[in-house]
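anyone seen this seq b4? input:
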Amino acid sequence: MSWSIKLFRVKGIEIKVHLTFVLILIWAAARWGVTMNGGPTGALYGVLVILLLFVCVTIHELAHSLTAMQFGVKVKNITLLPIGGIAQMDEMPKKPSEELRMSLAGPLSNFIIAAVLLLLSIPLDFPAEVSSGRMSEVLGSVSWEGLLAYLITANIMLGCSTFCPLSPWTAAGVLRSILAMRMDHAKATAVAAAAGRPGLGDGAHRSPERRWTLVIIAVFIYLGAGQEGKMVEVKNVLGGLRVRQAMTTKCQILSPADTLSKAVDLVLHGFQTVFPVLEDDRLVGILTEADLVSALKQHGPEVAVKMAMRSEVPTVDPDSSLFDAQQLISQKRLGALPVLKDGRVIGLLTPHDVSEAYLFLSLKPDLLAKT
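predicted toks r here
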């Protein structure tokens, strides 16, 4: 996610904070410093409360992510936003039972945090304050008791949100995993995503004083559920196909000794912009259009292709899943994937090839021959 700053890594997962996060710090400083008449001390207290709250949010997202990693899911990063945290995963766990465990891991971490904080609060008589009905006063005070009360309450609410159909990151994930045990995964995702979309919008109409906050959160949730549903839809369309059914078989090749001017001629006289580079019929690299343009600017048209090509090249087998290949292209931002069989290049798979396959198969699933 752009406009984000990297903070640190946990088990290979980047923890980032979006620049808009500063908005909630400003809000917290104003709430405790001005609205609640806390002055500068109250403003600093408000910032501390939010920072500690987002430590809990980070633990929540890490619990989701680390559980998903146990099932072979790659997690790229966790981004902290004013509305919470979002973990970016390449895919969801394949088995409904695995997804259920992943979805429940986050809320469970919040219940554990709340229990630990509750134990720490015993010397401060926080349980007595709650039982005497003075909870609102404790929450509003600039004190250690108020800080503990706020964090305990927030963690309990984060944990209980699992059972509220307003969040595609927890509740919809639990709902989808349960439904997927009894129906098609794509249909289960559609039902769960739809269930997560309307609730907050309705709440905004019933509570005018929180209208804009809820509308903003609803937009994030709608987009999050829509993106996840789209990935499952793509998998549903492409998952049964092989790379050989969509790849380009007639592609131009280059050798390491060819000049860049030859590559320019091939680009200008055709539609190909990524070229496998072969030496003795063995793949030694690829030359992309971006690499070609960069090398032309630096060295001119007579330099050899080997000076501009990429030697570390991901490849794919013709019998590989087309969906898996599409995910690799998307994750690595590749212009094409060389298709190898028995160590020899037999074609290229480009994003355009995948898009065409998706377009036609969405219209008529049996258009591509299953050969």
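The chain has a mean pLDDT of 77. Residues 186 and 233 are 6 Å apart (CA to CA). kinda curious what u guys think
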